[in-house]
Structures are given as C-alpha cells and as structure tokens.
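Q: How do we represent a protein-ligand complex in a form that can be generated token by token?
A: Start from the inputs.
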Amino acid sequence: MSDYMFMLESHLSTEQFRVVGEMQKIAAAAGVNLFLTGGAMRDMLGGFPVRDLDFTVETNPLKLGKALEKAGATAVSTDDLRKAVELRFPGGVTAELAMARQERYPKPGGRPQVTPAAIHEDLRSRDFTVNAIALSLNRASLGLPIDPTNGVGDIERKELRAIHNYSFYDDPSRMLRLIRFKIRLGYAIDERTKLQYENAREAEMLTKISPEALGAELRHIAAEPLVADVLKALEEEKLIGLYSPALEGPKLNLGGFQKLQKARQTAPSDYRVHAMPLFLTILFEKLNAKEKSALIKAAELSRQEINATQKMEAAAKKLERDLKSAKLQKPSQLYQILIKAPGELVLCLMVYSDQRLVQDRIKNYFGKYLPASLEITDEMVAASGVAPGTPKFAGAKEKMILARLDARPKKPAPEPEPPPPPPMSSFARGPGPRAPR
Ligand code: ATP
Ligand code: MG
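Then emit the structure tokens for the protein with adenosine-5'-triphosphate bound:
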C-alpha cells in the first residue's frame, strides 16, 4: 500500500473511507479516472480534519448518476456550468464530485469557459497551490500523488501561493478565499501573492465579483469553524463591505459570532449543522430591514435560505422550552432530545438562550452524555446477541446507550454561578421562570 493510501485510511473517518471505496468501484465500473483532490487532500496533508471529500473524475460526473444513487448518494446541488455535483452519502458523509476541467476567463470576474481536461490541466487552473494536489484512486496508479505546482512544499512551509499571476483578475472572489484560508489554516500569504492581491485591489477588481460568487463565498464563511475570526479579518481587510456597507461598522455582530465560534468548539468537530440559517440570524441581527434586503440582493441569497432563517427562532424557542422542562430528570431523557435536535438549533440556543439551565444541559450533553454514548460500540451490541444489520439492532443499541447514561454516577450539583450578563439580542429577552435543576 502506498504511503498516501495508508494516510488516507488513517486520516479519514470510517464512513468517509467507505465512501472513497464506493467511488473507486463506481469509477472503475464506468472506466473513468478518479482522483481525490482539493480541500480533502490539503486538509489530510496539512493535518486538519477532512470535512468533505472532493473528487475529480475525467468525465462528466452527471453521467454517473445511476451508480451514485445505487450507492445511496443523494445530489444536494448541481453546478451545470462546472459539471459538478454535491453529494450526501449515508452516514452523513458529504462530497463534491466534479469534472476535470480547464477554466478560461475571457472577461475578468465573468463566467469562465469550461472545457473538459486531464487532471494535470485541471490542477493547474485552480486557485492556490495547496488546493491543487490530487491522489490517484485508479487501480493502475493507486495512491500516486499528482502535484504539478508543488502544493506539498507549500503545505510544509505553511504558505498560500496563487498559481497564476492573474489569478485574482480571472476570478476576484479568490481574494475573499485567500483571506478565509489564511485564517482557517493559519498559513502566511506568500509575498508575490500579496503583491498580486494588492494590484488586483488597486485595479478595482473587487467590484467585478458577481452576486452569485459573493453568495457562494458567504456559504463557505458560514460553515467556517473560526467564523468570527474570518469575519474580523474580512473587516480588517475592508472586504466585508462587499456584502453590505452597514457591516463595516459596529453593525457587524462580532460578539454574536464569537459566541457561535465558541459553541462550535464545544460541539464535536463532525457535529452536523445546517450553517446558513444560524449564520444569517446572527448577521442580520443588527441590520434594519432595508440593509437586510440589500444584503440579500448583493449575495443573491435564495428564498429558501431566508425562509429557513425566519423559521429558526421559533424552532429554537420550542427546543428551549423542552430543554428547561422540569420533567427532564434523567440524562437519558436529555440525550434523547438533543440527539434528535437539528444541530443549528442547539448552537442557536448556545448563542442566544439566557437560561442557565438550558446552557448547562447542552454543555452536559456535549461534555458527558454524547461521549458516554459513543462508548457503546456495535461489537458490544452484537455481543449481547443481536445480529448486526437486523431491524432490531438500532433499537438494541439505543437501549444500551440509555441504560449506560442513567447508570453513570451523579455528580454533586455545581456551585451557583453569578447571574449571566444582560442578553445581547431581542431573541434572548423575556426570560421564562427558572426551572428547578
Ligand atoms: P472546504 O474545506 O472549505 O470545502 P475546499 O478547498 O475544498 O475547502 P471548495 O470550495 O470545496 O474548497 O473547492 C474545492 C476545490 O476547488 C478547491 O480546493 C480548489 O482547488 C478549487 N476551487 C474552488 N473554488 C475555486 C476558485 N474560485 N478558483 C479556483 N479554484 C477553485
Ligand atoms: Mg471542499
């Protein structure tokens, strides 16, 4: 086995590695070349957790639709221009499957002309060297790295380097990506790339970013673990005004985003969250109606995204009521509520709820009950006599988890803490009666 295949197996989650295997089978059956690329390679080599898998195939991936469906994948969205499809696999694994392509930009900031290409050309038309590494998943060259721009060297140096001199002219949204990756990875920006960035700014290339590209970047920002740090860096770089001039001042809700960043650090790194509604709730908090609608237009946010944002508050309030119920006596009851709750609602309460009991209960869930539930393995369930894969299995596992949670020794109640600071938002106002512990 090549070093890289070994690294893949040890770095990816079991579920992700299974998806890599599925994809290999699908590509082999279709007789097309498949590579692991982009962020997945960068993060694996840089020692970061791999959030989603980026695959590139030397064909139009939409042709693989049937086989993907059979493997249990659902298409979340498709990009017809770039011939890319975003997929969700069972077990919560997310992946992008894109056609190996070359992009040419006849007009700065305009839509690229996309043509099918071999993997080498595809890698050379990407943004930064650290994002332009591929790993062959094909039988004849399995585990062979392809790194035409020496991205591995830049990962070792911890440097972000643009691949082309005119990279920021071709696609000015890469300027936003540059700052986001700088914060996310903690890498420095190579000197020459810095100059290219400054030149492109001077040439007013920022004005050429399309609303579609601004929206796509906002979705990436929303999903960043260090969301507050990224927004702060965009403010310092005077880039945040691209979304709304109102965000250039105190209306950028950094306090709210810091709470969100902290909440994300409390939750496990693979905690599933639908990021946009909560992100927009925090972003919109200090804006008036006019500023909000200008931002929605500037980033071409969808009706669906706005609706989900508007529904978020009521749903979070309901969860808050359930969580402060005096009927919640046992850890197993709390676990059952929170394991089912959408991640964004749980994080929303961590940001906004002024109920101490609710905050403590969520903290207990992440700090104690969720880790304890993971101690029950499939092998333990199988050893109790229930065959894996049978309909009874999931139920038997849940039963064992609940029993384990309630069997844990009770800790003495913590010392009462001083009252919380005044609520930050209208959402937090109107504390209900304090439920008993
Ligand atoms: P993340 O972990 O946020 O998904 P990522 O690097 O995978 O990071 P994506 O936006 O998913 O980022 O894109 C996948 C890959 O596609 C990138 O690694 C990069 O190689 C390429 N790419 C994405 N956007 C651009 C762009 N605007 N210009 C050039 N290449 C891009
Ligand atoms: Mg990605």
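The first strand starts at residue 34 and ends at 36. The two ends are 55 Å apart (CA to CA).
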